[in-house]
Amino acid sequence: MNIKNFINNKAGQLAFFVRGYWSYKIPYIELDLYFWDTLEEWAHVKKRDDEPYSQKERVFWHLLHQLNYWPEQKLLHDKYLRSELETCINYLEGEGQYPLDCIGIRP
């Protein structure tokens, strides 16, 4: 699998997990497991060090990092953070504009 296919496959899953967490249908532990599973799968992706990022990939890595960085309760209850993450999710789902404050990089 290449980077573009990986990001396209995982972006929808990431949006699903975050929305499920916010609606109390998916527990935080599942969101955390998704994070670690994604990193494990990333280790098997064929990539070159000089391969450029797409905007979608930058948003994907930014959102994934934010989910791991912020504590569980802040992800649920901080309105400003949720608004920023919602913008990222909308973009990954093809529904919104590119969030200008995304600085996602590959692990």
Summarize the structure.
The chain has 107 residues and is mostly helical. It is 65% helix and 0% strand. The chain has 5 helices and no strands.
Task: Spell out the blueprint of helices and strands.
Layout: H1 3-22, H2 28-42, H3 55-69, H4 72-77, H5 79-92
Account of the 3D structure:
- This protein is 65% helix and 0% strand.
- It has 5 helices and no strands.
- It is globular.
- The protein starts with a helix and ends in a 15-residue tail after the last helix.
- 21% of the residues are buried.
* Spatial gap, N to C terminus: 17 Å
Would you list the SSEs in sequence order as H and E?
A: HHHHH
What is the mean predicted local confidence, pLDDT?
95
Q: Uncertain spans, ≥5 residues at pLDDT below 50?
A: none
Strand content: under 5%
Q: How many strands, which pairing sense, and closed or not: the largest β-sheet? A: none
Fraction of residues in helices?
55-70%
Q: State the oligomer.
A: single chain
Shape: globular
The number of helical runs is 5
Count of individual beta strands: 0
Counting helices, strands and paired strands, the structural category is mainly alpha
Rg, nearest Å: 13 Å
Index terms:
107 residues, mainly alpha, 0% strand
